[in-house]
Design a protein that fits this description.
CATH class of the largest domain: Alpha Beta
Bound molecules: pyridoxal-5'-phosphate
Number of helices: 11
Family: Belongs to the alliinase family.
Strand order of the largest sheet: 2-8-7-6-5-3-4
Cofactor: pyridoxal 5'-phosphate
Shape: globular
CATH topology of the largest domain: Aspartate Aminotransferase, domain 2
Protein name: Tryptophan aminotransferase-related protein 2
Number of domains: 2
Order of helices and strands: HEHHEHEHEEEEHEHHHEEEEHEEEH
InterPro entries: Alliinase_C (IPR006948), Alliinase_N_sf (IPR037029), Ethylene_sulfur-biosynth (IPR050478), PyrdxlP-dep_Trfase (IPR015424), PyrdxlP-dep_Trfase_major (IPR015421), PyrdxlP-dep_Trfase_small (IPR015422)
CATH architecture of the largest domain: 3-Layer(aba) Sandwich
Number of strands: 15
GO molecular function, one term: transaminase activity
Strand content: 15-25%
Helix content: 25-40%
Length: 380
């Protein structure tokens, strides 16, 4: 491996000392849009406002700010990515808290055995940790849904489009009696064509990936069943006694600005968030595919173009992550290989597959993405 490392370093002609961290999916690539938008997305909260714990005592999710719920429903309606009629909205501290809450709500407090939590590999690397972190007696991680051979007492986490590989996913154990949570963090038009409004029992969304506001820590669940919704809200009550109102107000404003970019006819073209995101990702994917082709050492998933109900035209898929596979017999561990280039990636092992895969964030700032492309392009 040492020998390979030095070969790789020898292949680099520039920027070799700076470490580029593309391990996390930190969505900073959207910053220029929000800079350009300026004051219209600014939120000011007077010191005396939003002080109470309570937002809407009549709602089973009593800590949900009505203006946030309204803007979330409005944006889903404009985009056409999810059914919101007759759904309860549960707000969470990111969709991470909502995954915890959904597992709690779907598992039984009475069960003698913990319920198995599964997801088809490659699965989002946090799922196993979330399922096992608290060593709960109610649920535990049971690995790849495709090879799972337990009984009907399972919860399948279905991530679509999938993190890490961008595939549109359906439940692997779709015909069985188990329960399902659909994590739809990336079902937005900048990443993938909008095929139809998703209509699952529990669907999770997050501003982190929808708008780039990961630091605001706001996610939301659309939940069909009132009892499940109530249990999810109970989990959040016990965990954090609700969710920051300040963050909900900010998230509401951000969603509103995006909605207005499409609903107010007089706004300039530059105010269309999904157009901005798609254009930037299209450019990055085109450059990455070209660099990968020239290097001949790696491969990437291919996606068919499909009709997008939002853009009203054939559209390509531009996932938030590049799921790279080594096609070079001498590179067994792609994460180690990229480390020799001072590029940090996430190892395939963390997603339940082999080290010949890595996940690379496509969502970082331009400057980091440019260095990444330069380093791949200058490999010998
Ligand atoms: C598939 C998926 N689900 C959930 C999350 C968690 O997002 P957050 O807690 O920031 O809302 C992420 C973040 O990367 C993700 O990729």
């Amino acid at each position: 491996m040492e020998e390979k490392a030095s070969t790789a370093i020898a292949g680099i002609s520039h920027d070799r000392d700076s470490i580029i961290n593309l391990d996390h999916g930190d969505p900073t690539m959207f910053e220029p849009f929000w800079k350009e938008i300026g004051d219209s997305a600014t939120v000011v909260i007077p010191g005396w406002q939003k002080m109470s714990y309570f937002s809407d005592p009549r709602n089973l999710c009593w800590f949900l700010e009505p203006e946030f719920a309204n803007e979330a429903r409005r944006l889903h309606r404009i985009v056409g990515n999810a059914v919101t009629d007759d759904r309860h909205i549960i707000v969470g501290v990111g969709s991470t808290q909502l995954i915890h809450a959904a597992l709690f709500a779907l598992a039984s407090t009475e069960a003698r055995q913990p319920v198995d939590v599964i997801s088809a590999a490659p699965y989002y690397s946090m799922y196993s940790g979330i399922a096992d972190f608290m060593k709960s007696g109610m649920f535990h991680w049971a690995g790849d849904a495709a090879t799972f051979n337990g009984d009907d007492n399972f919860i399948e986490l279905v991530c679509s489009p999938n993190n890490p590989d961008g595939e549109i996913r359906h439940a692997v154990r779709g015909n069985e009696a188990g329960k399902r949570v659909h994590d739809m963090a990336y079902y937005w038009p900048q990443y993938t064509p909008m095929r139809h409004p998703a209509d699952h029992d529990i669907m999770l969304f997050t501003v982190s990936k929808a708008t780039g506001h990961a630091g605001t820590r706001i996610g939301w669940a659309l939940v069909k069943d009132a009892e499940v919704a109530r249990k999810m809200a109970k989990f959040i009550e016990m965990n954090t006694i609700g969710v920051s109102k300040d963050s909900q107000v900010r998230a509401a404003k951000i969603l509103k600005v995006i909605a207005e970019g499409y609903e107010l006819p007089d706004l300039e073209a530059g105010s269309k968030f999904f157009h901005f995101g798609r254009c930037l990702l299209a450019n990055r994917w085109q450059r990455l595919r070209q660099a990968i082709k020239v290097s001949g050492r790696f491969s990437l998933p291919q996606f068919p173009s499909e009709f997008c109900m939002f853009f009203k035209e054939q559209a390509e898929t531009y996932p938030g992550f590049a799921w790279l596979r080594s096609e070079d017999q001498t590179i067994e561990d792609l994460e180690v290989f990229f480390k020799t280039l001072n590029i940090l990636t996430r190892n395939g092992r963390q997603f339940g597959v082999g080290p010949e895969y890595v996940r690379v964030s496509m969502l970082d700032r331009d400057a980091n993405f440019d260095v990444f492309i330069k380093r791949i392009s200058s490999l010998e």
